Amino acid sequence: MKITLLAAVALMPLAGVAADKTKASRPEATPGISFDTLDANKDGRISMPEASADPKLVETFSAADKNGDGYLDSAEFQSATKTQKL
């Protein structure tokens, strides 16, 4: 009984590490990430490489790009964040 209890206690930290790795492998949107934060080069629009900082935005990028120019302007971004809850 003591050995089983000791083994369980010894393995508990490993279970936490496994859970952290699983969580890290599932990308989630950064809560409250702003247009200005994503617009890394400060050109007033977000490119797909810039959007990659927020995996949720990457998923909706094409639909959010209403004019099809390959970039999100601030209005397209605001629209996407309201409808997609980014």
How would you characterize the overall build of this protein?
This protein is mostly helical and 86 residues long. It has one domain (2-84): Recoverin, domain 1 (Orthogonal Bundle). It is built from 5 helices and 2 strands, in the order H-H-E-H-H-E-H. The protein has helices at 2-25, 35-38, 48-51, 55-64, 74-84, and strands spanning 46-47, 71-72.
Keywords:
mainly alpha; single chain; 5% strand; Recoverin, domain 1; 86 residues; 5 helices; 2 strands
- When the domains are counted, the total is 1
**Helical coverage, percent range:** 55-70%
Distance, first to last CA: 50 Å
- Assign the structural class, choosing from mainly alpha, mainly beta, alpha/beta, alpha+beta, or little secondary structure: mainly alpha
CATH class: Mainly Alpha
% residues in beta strands: under 5%
Global geometry: globular
Q: Could you say what the CATH topology is called?
A: Recoverin, domain 1
Q: What is the count of DSSP helices, taking H or I runs of 4+ residues?
A: 5
What is the annotated CATH architecture? Orthogonal Bundle
CA-atom Rg in angstroms = 20 Å
User: Would you count the extended β strands for me?
Assistant: 2
What low-confidence regions span 5 or more consecutive residues with pLDDT below 50? Answer: 5-9, 17-29
Largest beta-sheet details: 2 strands, antiparallel
What is the chains' assembly state?
Answer: single chain
Mean pLDDT: 76
Order of helices and strands: HHEHHEH
Order of adjacent strands in the largest pleated sheet? 1-2
